[in-house]
Amino acid sequence: MTAVLRTNGLGKRYRRRWALSDCTLSIPEGRVTGLVGPNGAGKTTLLNLAVGMLKPTAGTVEVCGGPPAVAAAALARVGFVAQETPTYAGLTVAEHLRLGARLNPGWDDVVATSRIARLGLDPKQKAGRLSGGQRAQLALTLGLAKRPELLILDEPVSSLDPLARREFLQVLMEAVGEQELSVVLSSHVVSDLERVCDHLVVLVDSGVRVEGDVETLLDTHHRLTGLRRDSRSLPADQTVVSDRHTDRQSTFVVRTESPILDPAWSVSRLGLEDLVLTYMEQAAAPEAAQALEVVR
Amino acid sequence: MTWLAWRQLRFQALAAYVAVVAAAVVLAVTGTRIVALAEPAGAIFDRLTASDRTLFWSGLIVMAVLPALLGAFWGAPLVARELEHGTHRLVWVQSVTRMRWFGVKVGLTVLGAALAVSALTWAVTRWANPLDGATSATHGGFPSRLTPVSFAMRGIVPVSYAVFALALGITLGIVLRRSVPAMALTLLLYVAVQVAVPLWVRPHLAAPVDQSVTISRATLDGISSSGPGGPLTVSAHRADRGDWILSNRTVDASGRVAALPSWLSTCLPGPGAEAPPVSGQTRVPAPVNSLDSCFARLASEGYRQEIVYQPADRFWTLQWRESGLYLGLAAVVGGVGLWWLRERVS
Hints:
The structure holds 2 protein chains of 2 kinds. The N and C termini of chain A lie far apart (about 45 Å). By secondary structure, chain A is α/β, with parallel strands linked by helices. Helices cover about 35% and strands about 30% of the residues of chain A. Chain A folds into 2 domains: about 5-205, 3-Layer(aba) Sandwich (Rossmann fold); about 220-295, no CATH class. In chain B, strand 2 and strand 3 form a beta hairpin. The longest helix of chain B is centred in the first third of the chain and has 36 residues, at about 1-35. The relative contact order of chain B is 0.13. Mean pLDDT of chain B is about 85; it is low at about 270-280. Chains A and B meet through helix 2, strand 5, helix 3 and helix 5 of A and helix 1 and helix 4 of B.
């Protein structure tokens, strides 16, 4: 597996506060990877480090096999749609495409113009007068038409209404189908990612909580419900992700490669959103575990 | 990249160039008349109109404020506006490095500003040449081009001022990340430097000349008192009215700076009983004979006038050196901005 984005001990400090610390991860090539995590997990910092907008305080980051943004060639390999999808308010749609053509040697004008036409954007319209959804589409078009190997999108749909969200992700998926490119897409809304991602990274407090193919993740996680019992009584090949206990009942989320054979459990599959939330809650888990000790 | 830089600069550049061309045309049309007026030497003041004088002083004012305006309105928002609107996150991820983006943008802006200021300062300097330093007995005079009033608005220094002001504005914009505060601070710091340089730096750009003269009717420029009955001070002048006099002090026999002896005020004929000085400084027109005897007595007691000055023919030497100084400052300030942009901005 070739990594399109690889970090090792990556950290970024703003004055006293670490926005990202000791982050080690590797994102495979040729996938649409969703980067999820609560606000403040360091997603934006990580992506900005990956495109070279930021310089790391500690550790290293590699995109498409090299350090980011060191030269024009490195920049050409990575496309970036920043948070809030900024565009030049005073420039028209056509001028944005011209900007892209002038600033990118690998610019694909056919992709750009046909995409703008398909979106129904007026080339003479100033970007400042576009709706949020249209502006996001314009920014996406710029990112796609430069023909990058990796396209990184930082919360591209967070400020869009549900319809614009759906359209944006639709366009993104079509583009991924047409062009061979890897995509890393961050969001704190899992339902956005569920439709488009085939790979998932859950980032909490700068750390990777879980990572893997969406299919595999869904297949290997199970919710077990049954009479109250201790988590230590579960088989060794079942990793407990979370446990919840009432007076009589216990609910576990476990990760295992092998099938669940114990007939005492009622077993159910998790949705992607539940799965992600379970891992995010894990951050607060030590308190919950202690509470359980006290009860016993 | 040049296209984008030009696209973002074009309106302000066009506006500036239209204004410069308009000013150049006005100066070219009126300039020939000024040259013609100056033809019989000394007669210029008799035929100078009020509008000529207005134009002279307007030229000074425009040249004084133009670099500051360029620094504030072209320099400060150059990067700060991108940071404010987040567009740096669009343009820095195209296939152009941040440093090249900055280089082209700054290069084009500085070049555009330098050309505009060069054209204007050339036109203004040429126009004002017959008037600079012209004096008359009855109509007052115009400041010489070496004095601080005119020096900064003549010759080549305005170009270096513009480059410095731009560097200052751009760097402050990068550091503060906000256009308006950066503009205000640019103006403030630029004015501070413009005040400090003629006061403390320009006099030493070339070693000033010291000259010691006896006080006589030939060298006397004026006698003034700080009020009725107050101590008198004398100032002498140089033969060349274009010299920039840095200090003009009376020294006693031992060579120390000294006040004039008290007998002088009684020796000198008063300004006349009918018109005592009302306030401040009063130039004293004096009957000839008694003045000579007073000055003779001053000289015999060892009083001399010590003048420190920059000779008029050093105009271009000082212009080049001050331009170098400002360009050096611009390079340092710009370097800080460049470093900040590369290391501290995201």
